[in-house]
Amino acid sequence: MFRDDLPTVSLEELQDHDGTGPDASVWVAYGRGVYDVTEFARGAHPGGDKILLAAGGDIAPFWDLYAVHKTGWVYEVLEELRVANLDSLGAERLAEAARARAAAAAAGGGVFANEPARSPALEVRSQRPFNAETPPGALCASFRTPSDEFYVRNHLAVPDVDPATHVLTVEGSGIASPVTFTLDDLASKFEQVDVEVTLQCGGNRRREMSRVRNVHGLDWDRAAIGNAVWRGPRLRDVLRAAGLPLDEDAVVSVQPAAAGASAEAAPAGLPAGPGRADAEASPTKRLRDLHVQMEGADTDEGGSPYGASVPAWRAVSAEQDVVLALQMNGEPMPRDHGFPLRAVVPGVVGSRSVKWLTRIRVADEESTSFWQRKDYKALGPATDWASPDLERARSIQEMPVQAAVLRPLPRGGAEAAVVDGTRPVAVEGYAWSGGGRGIARVDVSADGGATWQEAELRDESGQRDGRHWAWVLWHASVPVPAGADTTELVARAVDSSLNVQPERVGPQWSARGLLNNAWTRVPLTIRRPAACAAGRDAGAPSARAPADGSMRRA
Amino acid sequence: MFRDDLPTVSLEELQDHDGTGPDASVWVAYGRGVYDVTEFARGAHPGGDKILLAAGGDIAPFWDLYAVHKTGWVYEVLEELRVANLDSLGAERLAEAARARAAAAAAGGGVFANEPARSPALEVRSQRPFNAETPPGALCASFRTPSDEFYVRNHLAVPDVDPATHVLTVEGSGIASPVTFTLDDLASKFEQVDVEVTLQCGGNRRREMSRVRNVHGLDWDRAAIGNAVWRGPRLRDVLRAAGLPLDEDAVVSVQPAAAGASAEAAPAGLPAGPGRADAEASPTKRLRDLHVQMEGADTDEGGSPYGASVPAWRAVSAEQDVVLALQMNGEPMPRDHGFPLRAVVPGVVGSRSVKWLTRIRVADEESTSFWQRKDYKALGPATDWASPDLERARSIQEMPVQAAVLRPLPRGGAEAAVVDGTRPVAVEGYAWSGGGRGIARVDVSADGGATWQEAELRDESGQRDGRHWAWVLWHASVPVPAGADTTELVARAVDSSLNVQPERVGPQWSARGLLNNAWTRVPLTIRRPAACAAGRDAGAPSARAPADGSMRRA
Lengths: 554, 554
Fold this sequence. Notes:
Two copies of one chain form a homodimer. Chain A is of the alpha+beta class and 554 residues long. Among the domains of chain A are: 8-91, Cytochrome b5-like heme/steroid binding domain (Flavocytochrome B2, Chain A, domain 1, Roll), CATH 3.10.120; 167-202 and 229-261 and 282-377, Sulfite Oxidase, Chain A, domain 2, CATH 3.90.420.10; 402-500 and 519-534, Immunoglobulin-like (Sandwich). Chain A is built from 16 helices and 29 strands. Chain A has a five-stranded mixed β-sheet with strand order 9-8-20-14-15. Chain A has a five-stranded mixed β-sheet with strand order 22-29-28-24-25, with no helix packed on it. A four-stranded mixed β-sheet of chain A has the order 1-4-3-2. The radius of gyration of chain A is 26 Å and the shape is globular. The first copy, chain A, starts with 7 loop residues before the first strand and ends in a 20-residue tail after the last helix. At the A-B interface, strand 24 and strand 25 of A face strand 26 and strand 27 of B. Chains A, B: Its cofactor is Mo-molybdopterin. Chains A, B: Residues 6-87 form the Cytochrome b5 heme-binding domain. Chains A, B: Keywords: Heme, Iron, Metal-binding, Molybdenum, Oxidoreductase. Chains A, B: Residues 265-284, 535-554 are annotated as: Disordered.
């Protein structure tokens, strides 16, 4: 409903009030109404934090998800907060987005008929399979990423797993015969540990790499990463219960892949495959030279499951903290994140933390899945998709040091973020490294790297170096160059092994667009109040003037 | 003795024949004589490998060290190999260098009166204390660096330790009272393990950084690194024998530093300091939050020993392989490397591998030594020597991924290495990373980084990722750009966590000149036979022409 007593604003003006501007004001839209919910959101109102997800945008999809809000009194409360009308073009654009969401939901069908409900705050990169990242502002809002805002990386449709009947089968080299565990077994027969782990997609920040040269993969920006607490038994304890020795130097009989597969298929009473019939002749290897393969309940059109593997030494190590998670952030695992059971392999590319986990197999080769053998590979610049080196290339396991700026960022398709030139820029972001390495330092520069200052690090994990699986969040207040109209904001992290991020994306380019960990850069447009520059109206308040009215330069 | 029947060559011509040229010929000088020892050196002659140390230079200092050579028949043999006279300027320059060596040896006195004999092959960076690196050609000649060519990093004079009376004292938090071990205890009461570990000075490759902007420290080129097998008991086994629990989560009483120091000094029968008198009140900490301090027998003018520390979790970990070495490469430790006992901390900056080890103390703070608190620090670009941040900065422990070209290199003070443009350049080097990370890939480019190819890696360690403490050597055969007269050879390594070397030295600059791990670059001058280019004498053999006489371009 249009209200003549209020001003009319554009969608861009609405988007400017997303809580990250100088006055931190939060506006949301509902139909033609524009509402200032700054105080409301930060008060004690239940779901006040959720309304922030709609900051600078349409509140309707969030209200669809959190149905409690759709009552008459809520509309009354909201109308009291109204500050403007949204112009007709803006309203039409929001309606168009709503129609697209509805069409996408209706189009679900076939194998994608049973996808879970999802937060509309997620920035969708593909609908089927569903892949989405967290809005940057939400990512730096809390040290532990809320489960419903955590980035989603699905390779296939989300399986519908019945927790009452779900079992995990553990088998393979070093294990006499397959052992199955119910969820109840996993929850009651093993010590339950909480491990705080940041997961990151191997393609995080691919968008920047694709600007250098075309790459293959989802158009991930910088938020295909998140930090959560995962709870369940240790993988090593479950492997021990299945009979595997936990000493990486132990010599075990290698079970041929065929024997492993046929062991279950063989009818009771018959020999369980060649590996069993002639156990004396089976070759042996040290456990450290083997791999732990994992399969999920998600399957492709041919019925083959998603699969991945990690080296066996990592799976059995007391210091690598691999967990079979039943819970995420203190609640049952959400379906998008692997309900009811997923592996969480700390310090390693997210794709090895297999969701909807059904099977673990100790084997003398990596998982034979497409994703292990041809997808998440560390490719050099000389290797492309036609190269025979693709399968020989090293599988990505531990990830390199990474950091990204989450604020300020360009809004609404702009090339540059607009900042107030009369005060230092407040910069926020995350930093993380693989392999349990903590973050030693984050350097921030508002002059393209000519001068640097160190950011303040925020680490709520309590983890030590070497087992530091969680990220750090960081912030800095950095002066912009005097007199400049534009500049480049740069940040780079150094991890506890003193590895640094590379300066440019280009030399890291690879055909799959993986492993972009170059310095994070944000072009800035520096605004200084025109009144100030011209010497007129120096006393007049401005939306972008500092609260104390100070002006640094004429 | 000058021989009229032979040609006369300059020192530069002599230096050209150092075994790395296209025909791999090795010349050495002795007095005015120049000898081609190519075949001799590569034959079965005892010490034939040692003569290569003099390749392209004066053989006299090597013969001084290996006195067996100074017999009449050796001179006779040598004279048969004579190919030229050294010109008088060259002979005078070699004599001048010999006088300088003699003066340096004679100047030894005071605390430096008892330094060990050293290989003249070492490239000396400082005489007192003695610091020297391996010649690059020797470094890539063997996967295990010979002990007498291993880089030497001494912070003080080399102590003269009597192995018969030397003891190691282990004390501090979690240890009821100091325990001492003789060398015989360490060699006989514990399992002896061989651990192959590459050690690297934190200042390796400082020379390149000092070209960006002045830094403080020894002028290390690229060879302050070496790889050896170290044998002795595990540190964790010795700590366990002293009573320390090996669980990093164990809660131990923290012994105040003062109590630790006075425990030994107290006369028998008297209370051994406040920590003992009131043990109930002593604070507790988890072992993982403590440090293992180490002291050497080398002392400064005030009698304070060299000291360093590592986090306690690393010292007690079964996977970090910290060893108390009694042997290096299968022989007793050389004096320059810590005779009779040194710590070897794999994957960590060399300065924490304390030599001439006398004392280990578990404490709730890092070593208070100058070298721990003010020297080997990971400084950001904003920190200089006057900065109060110096002591607060993080101590270097694990080192980042590193690589350097060892061949070809510029010779005799030239800016560029000269290569034969008619064939691919044979490139050799090393690559290593800290923290047990192996090397995933080495990319090599002979066009400044525009195009890359992968090097062949040589790994004789048999170590797995995560406990990969040894380096790899690598080689590649890389075509130079057609038609160019100069180019830049570039190499960069990627470690198993997929961390990369940074592109440029400049952004890594720090006041102490530590941690330079930028891409390794060698300017090349490309020579193509003039005869070939001009179309004359195409059939005439040339010193730089390929053996098969082929010419790639006119």
